[in-house]
Amino acid sequence: MDFTGESYSAKKRESKKVNNIFSEHFSRKENILTRLDARIKIISCVTAIILILFFHTPYISSTVIILTLLSLFLVGIPLKVIILRMSAPLGIALVILFIKIFFYRDTLQSGLLIALKIIGSTSAMLFLSMTTTLDKLLTASRYFKMPRVWVEICLIAYRYVFVLIEDASTVIDAQKVRLGYANLRVTLRSLGTLAGAIIIRAYDQSVATYESMMLRGYKEEGLSKE
Predict the structure, then answer these.
(1) Residue 64 Rama label (left phi>0; alpha psi -120 to 50; beta)
(2) 45 in Cβ contact with 127 (< 8 Å)
């Protein structure tokens, strides 16, 4: 039996799954939300975030969260994907809730309000990212006079996020083969090594990308078009 081939195929399937979750896989599908003008969605999301941050009530955050989940679910985005996308902000919200209650001796209501603000603001951004492709977002950003250099940084950063995900996946697989996650102590050490390797890889990639752009005639006025 070709274990190497099976392992490679499994890794490719896992890589494709990760890319589908974090890439434009869903925002490129044809539906009523993806057809909506990106400028309208940007204004709506920014307005929702401002309301969440400046009004100290849980109702606005809860409304934004519910509307986001319903909208994404109705256009065919799996609940599992939505939860995975929200896992990081959910973790941060829970940590802050824990700190507010057990370290600052705050009330549960105060901690829940901050947690809801985090999740609500992230939900608005999640709606925007899962219904709008990057090219439409950046085109709309230029309409709102976003600096050209910021647009180019966003384009380059988005391109290499997935390269770094692939690199991280390779390092994790190598660590697993060497029992790098056998217990808590070894796991923490492996995670530290992983973080260091990715930071170094990101720096090396940024230098290589800059040098290649300069060799291809990159100028200060940039590459993006109006």
Answers:
(1) alpha
(2) yes
Assess if residue 70 is contained within a domain: yes
Contact present, 118 and 93 (Cβ < 8 Å):
yes
**Do residue 128 and residue 192 come from a single domain?**
no
Give the pLDDT confidence score for residue 226 in this predicted structure. 47
- For residues 99 and 162, membership in a common domain is answered with no
What token pair was written down for 101? 């209650």
Residue 2 burial (CB < 10 Å; 0-12/13-18/19+)? exposed
For residue 88, is it within any domain? yes
Tokens of 208: 């290589």
Whole-angstrom distance, CA of residue 190 vs CA of residue 196: 10
Structural domain boundaries enclosing 47: 29-143
Examine residue 134 and state whether it is found in any structural domain, yes or no. Answer: yes
- pLDDT classification of 149: cutoffs 50, 70, 90: confident
Looking at the structure, tell me whether residues 172 and 106 fall in a common domain: no
pLDDT surpassing 80 at residue 6: no
Is the pTM here over 0.90, yes or no? Answer: no
Same domain, 83 and 46: yes
Chain centroid to CA 198: 17
**Whole-number Å distance between alpha carbons of 69 and 11:** 30
